[in-house]
Amino acid sequence: MKKIIPVIIFCIATFSFSNLQAKDMLSPADKAFNSYKERFVLSLWKINPGWASSVGFHKYDNVLVIPDQKSRILELDFCNKQLDSLSRFKLDDLSDANKTDHHMMENQLKYTQWGIQEQKAWQWDPSSYNVSSSFADMLGNDYAPLEERLRNFARRMAAIPAYYKAAEHNIKNPTLEHTALAIEQNLGGISVFEQDLPDALKRSTLEQKEKDAMLAKAATAVLSIKEYTEWLKNLKNENPRSFRLGKELYGQKFGFEIQSGYTADEIYQKALKHKQELHDEMYKLTEKLWPKYFAGHPIRANKMEAIQYMIEKLSENHVKADSFQAAIEAQIPALVAFIKKNNLIYIDSSKPLVIRKEPAYMAGVAGASINAPGPYDKNGNTYYNVGSLSGWDKNKAESYLREYNHYILQILNIHEAIPGHYTQLVYANQSPSIIKAILGNNAMIEGWAVYTERMMLESGYDGDNGINSAMASPEMWLMYYKWNLRSTCNTILDYSVHTKNMSKEAALELLTKDAFQQQAEAEGKWKRVSVTQVQLDCYFTGYTEIYEFRQELKNKLKIDFRLKAFHEKFLSYGSAPVKYIKELMMKDMK
Ligand code: ZN
Ligand code: ZN
Q: Which residue from 65, 62, 49 is spatially nearest to 150, judged by alpha carbons?
């Protein structure tokens, strides 16, 4: 227990420090709202212990909520109560930061109500019941002494049989796709109890008697998981629900999840139009590049085929497997230098990004990803995890390197690191909000990263020409457009599949022909779209809203428009939905 005390003191110290700083400037309404937010979050964690643990709040680690009718009623009561409390605050009395927090809290509460009462995935999605990853986190993350984590693990594990019994009780006419996914994922998760737990017990200093008791509980837990998957396999499901969400529910979910100024249908129409524009631009570039790469050969008569040929040719330009990480590392300082030289956005050099080889538990994912500290671990490092291709078989590595070729690798760095996700995160941390840290708007976050890809190329970024680059090469643009087609077609795919009955065949055609994807990637995307809804829209929607907003301001301010000022102001609102940022920025300008 001793180890915990300094951590708690430390937390209180940082909290009161940030309160002190701003205290005198706060209006009484903001003061009241701030303390309400703290109470809100604490009660949110009480009814969502799993969510709490995942963001680093470990007080309820030993609790596993049984997903029965009683827990749903508790959650609905919570939503009603909090919505009532929220309605007592007048938006006009609150600061901009609190206004956006207020909107986001209200949205979250209504989204939860809608999920329980309207979407009802708890009835038709058997894969929503799976305990393994939250248990794996307790063993894999070193936030408290191992023995303490193991004891909480054991207390939580005792509820697993009741958890799956409640799941069986809830499920009615599930979709076949979610049923198959539930069986696959639940069986896959058993290793947490059969391997990870015994391994952790070996490393611990617990007494043998206690270890044995935990192993016995684990055996019971494994049995319940297996029983659940058997039950699913034998379920008489004569009228399975379609995995397609349908137009009405889709539109509603889009509203809650994306919080866009546009409807789902409007975004779909924009994506269709954008796809056409991208194809037109790509063909123009292909015509221009053709003689350079295929001298003496006439251009293919079929436009889409010609583009495909050119993309494949350019994909041959890629790094060797053993220099993948070094290539990524070398690009980060080049990006920073280019941004400074061109006055694109202020980059805080006191918070450098820590680049590391991806940790073992992420191995196999490859690529690159940002790992940010959670809201309860503010002083933790932000890592840029870079995958290693060592141990991959030659063909798999080659196809991967072609996908993340010389051009795309640069765009990936812009997106994930600078000035994409990492830069956005640094700005978001400057106006800390626990609400935005836990309810951050994905369309804004992904939209920003996608927006910066285009912004960097428009500003002339091209790694081949270094810091003095003034214009991105046609090769770079062509590959960027191919990359951008991915998020554009994600939106077309998701909307068409869930609201327009698009067949698997048509979906694969869209991805392989219109978006130039490999068959394996397209198949993977089909699997994803058949078990998720709306999430795939966040990239294109956020990007479109940010880009359009910037153009609108540019037209309005004309020569007074400053790109750097726009970026810094835009990010200063934190991870709020774009429509609210836009509203506040426009008001500020008047
Ligand atoms: Zn190659
Ligand atoms: Zn991203």
A: 62
pLDDT in tens, 122-131: 999 999 999 9
Longest dimension (CA), the chain: 79
- Residues 356 and 446 sit within 8 Å (Cβ to Cβ): no
Residue for token pair 């009395």:
93
Ligand 1 centroid–CA 397 distance in Å is 9
pLDDT of res. 364: 56
In the chain, the amino acid numbered 201 is L
Question: Which residues in the chain come in under a pLDDT of 70?
Answer: 1-24, 360-366, 378-379, 590
3-class secondary-structure state, position 401: helix
- Residue 563 backbone phi and psi in degrees, to 5: -60, -45
Cα–ligand 2 centroid distance for 490 (angstroms): 13
CA atoms within a 13 Å half-sphere pointing along the CA-CB vector of 24: 1
pTM of the model: 0.91
| Distance (Å) from CA 429 to ligand 2 centroid | 18
In which residue are the tokens 């737990």 written? 197
Contacts of 303 (CB under 8 A, 6+ apart): 279, 283, 286
What residues contact residue 343 under an 8 Å CB cut-off, 6+ apart?
Answer: 563, 564
The amino acid occupying position 543 is: Y
Q: Hey, what amino acid is at 290? A: W
User: What integer pLDDT is reported at residue 103 of this predicted model?
Assistant: 97
